Q: What sequence folds into this?
């Protein structure tokens, strides 16, 4: 067995890409393909790839990408988005994950990225590095026969237009950008993302699976697209009765009218008996656009995007708060990035956060502050779990009122290629 101290943690060079890609595929049960290497090579031009190398063998992978996160109030912060994390089963319990995480977070902090985000494939791994769950996701399955949507009432789907991939590609990014500007938890989708999502640029993972259908919703007053829908479906019959499932890959709307029309369209597609709707905020209004909301059954509910605060004053002063107020937060951070006592003063119009010598109102672990940051959790709940302590009476209630938002944060995701499953990283 190789001593973990001699396993090299380093940036991935061009000649390492096939071994790095194979190691990541092994970790996530995905077959190796040359096209996957080409995809990673393209990403490596802008992303940071780290590998753990035991002599000439890659035994750990890690990728971080420059991203942008919308926070409550609409400000956009640069973040480090972490993905493709794996350690070979033959090399676990040797601190390789810790070494890769520590290396990357140090570099992110040095670059001036105040936050890091990731989708945690395993819950227990990342709390020890200061990450906390910051958004949640729900997966729905809609029983079309119970939905109470009449396909003959065309007014329910007014404004929906089926389009080809190129027409969709022209309008969809603009729709998403309008949502991203106001949706806490949203991340940027770049041009390459859209090229892959529409099949204009095919990677190894996106080349499989059925061809998707595309639809837009046009605002009847302006003619401008204000909603998008991407889905695929499978024609299935049993004893001359249709049993066809429809899988929503992406559904984004910037108006209630667009959201309702696009969902009702999906539910009224001919032959479809079940609509699968993934990656929604748990408080989504989508089921309520049906005649019978009980037809939308939650098939999975989970934490999703995890967040790590690296620069506390910059992060806390960037967002707005539900009510005017002030809090002195004593943040515990074993890695030191966000550690300190901070005076937060904020409200609906903005905020400031500076270091202070005043006594704390709350003592809070950095991972709890991450869960509080976008408004998806409450200080009162976190205190029960033990990572937050009320020092001054009333501080928990004040924190709840300041940090909570009217709607839960949501980090929109889309299904691409054949990887249609709850929580696929």
A:
């Amino acid at each position: 067995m190789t001593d973990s101290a001699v396993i090299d943690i380093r940036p991935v060079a061009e000649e390492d890409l096939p071994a790095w890609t194979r190691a990541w595929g092994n970790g996530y049960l995905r077959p190796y393909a040359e096209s996957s290497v080409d995809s990673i090579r393209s990403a490596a031009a802008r992303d940071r790839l780290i590998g753990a190398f035991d002599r000439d063998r890659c035994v750990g992978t890690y990728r971080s990408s420059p991203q942008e996160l919308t926070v409550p109030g609409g400000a956009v912060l640069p973040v480090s988005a972490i993905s493709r994390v794996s350690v070979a089963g033959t090399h676990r319990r040797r601190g390789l994950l810790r070494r890769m995480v520590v290396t990357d977070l140090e570099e992110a902090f040095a670059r001036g990225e105040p936050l890091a985000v990731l989708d945690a494939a395993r819950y227990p791994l990342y709390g020890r590095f200061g990450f906390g769950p910051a958004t949640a996701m729900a997966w729905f399955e809609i029983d079309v026969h119970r939905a109470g949507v009449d396909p003959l009432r065309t007014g329910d789907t007014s404004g929906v237009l089926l389009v080809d991939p190129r027409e969709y590609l022209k309008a969809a990014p603009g729709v998403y950008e309008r949502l991203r500007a106001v949706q806490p938890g949203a991340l940027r989708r770049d041009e390459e993302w859209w090229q892959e999502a529409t099949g204009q640029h095919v990677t190894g993972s996106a080349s499989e699976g059925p061809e998707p259908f595309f639809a837009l919703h046009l605002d009847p007053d302006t003619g401008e697209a204000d909603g998008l829908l991407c889905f695929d479906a499978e024609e299935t019959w049993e004893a001359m009765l249709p049993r066809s499932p429809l899988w929503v890959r992406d559904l984004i709307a910037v108006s209630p009218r667009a959201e309702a029309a696009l969902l009702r369209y999906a539910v009224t597609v001919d032959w479809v008996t079940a609509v699968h709707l993934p990656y929604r905020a748990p408080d989504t209004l989508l089921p309520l656009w049906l005649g019978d909301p009980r037809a939308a059954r939650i098939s999975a509910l989970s934490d999703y995007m995890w967040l790590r605060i690296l620069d506390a004053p910059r992060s806390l002063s960037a967002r707005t708060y539900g009510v005017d107020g002030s809090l002195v937060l004593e943040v515990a951070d074993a890695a030191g990035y966000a550690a300190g006592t901070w005076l937060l003063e904020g409200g609906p119009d903005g905020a400031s956060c500076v270091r202070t010598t005043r006594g704390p109102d709350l003592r809070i672990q950095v991972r709890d502050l991450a869960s509080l940051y976008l408004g998806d959790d409450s200080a009162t709940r976190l205190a029960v779990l033990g990572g937050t302590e009320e020092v001054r009476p009333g501080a928990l209630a004040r924190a709840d009122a300041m940090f909570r938002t009217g709607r839960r944060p949501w980090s929109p995701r889309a299904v691409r290629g054949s990887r249609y499953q709850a929580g696929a990283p």
Observations:
- The chain has ten helices and 21 strands.
- The first strand starts at residue 8 and ends at 11.
- The domain at 137-301 is CATH 3.40.630.30 (Aminopeptidase).
